[in-house]
Amino acid sequence: MSDNSLRLVWIYPDLLSTYGDQGNALVVERRARQRGLDVQRLDVRSDQQIPTSGDIYLIGGGEDRPQRLAAERLRRDGGLNRAVSNGAIVFSVCAGYQILGHEFINDLGEREQGLGLLDVVSTRGEGERCVGDVLADIDPQLNLPPLTGFENHQGVTHLGQTARPFARVRFGKGNGVGDGYEGAYNDTVFGTYMHGPVMARNPHIADLLIKLALDVNALPPADDRWYEALRQERIAAATQPA
Length: 242
Ligand code: GLN
Fold this sequence. Notes:
Elements: E1 5-11, H1 23-34, E2 38-44, E3 56-59, H2 64-77, H3 79-85, E4 89-93, H4 95-100, E5 103-105, E6 111-113, E7 120-124, E8 130-138, E9 147-153, E10 155-159, E11 164-171, E12 181-186, E13 189-192, H5 198-201, H6 203-214, H7 225-239
Parallel strand pairs: 1-2, 1-3, 3-4, 4-13
Antiparallel strand pairs: 5-6, 7-10, 8-9, 8-11, 11-12, 12-13
Helix pairs in contact: 1-6
């Protein structure tokens, strides 16, 4: 953070932005502006270098091939790892989440190296694809209301020793390995399987990232009515049988 301005970096909108994940950037931007911050948003395409001076980095989900291309470019670039070692905050969704781990299975059925920013490993799920609305309780340490989102993934994610589960599912599959966990985090790097876009349903996650960036414990209240209506609609969809 410098002065009153927040630098928000949206990584690879040309490769990783399915299910409206780009909405996460809009929500973080809006919630920050509502708190009087001046937001500089930078959308970094996959042929551009990742700046290392961002405060918050967002990375979305994607199909298997773009996911492999994104992983190759991010490894080669190295900027995201440098930004995290400088204290940056990262929030990733689905394919992006898998890329931030140690490895995942790519579209060729091979093990693809990730960035190692999250202590997780993703493998290909043997069962049915995990698809549908999810309701989960976020790690109490983060002090956030329940998580609502939509999942659609074949990969499943195993947490290593140092990763904390982001949430524990009440409905839905989450990480898909049967331990009830959804997502993971290591310090300021977060991963979730929730699309939606997840921040439109869970604006408190955007607020958490902003608080971490500002290094404050609380933000002035913002109008949550629209988000709350969407939350309630989607929680009903997750908890009622189809
Ligand atoms: N290709 C990955 C999987 O199926 C991620 C999919 C996604 O981002 N929706 O596990």
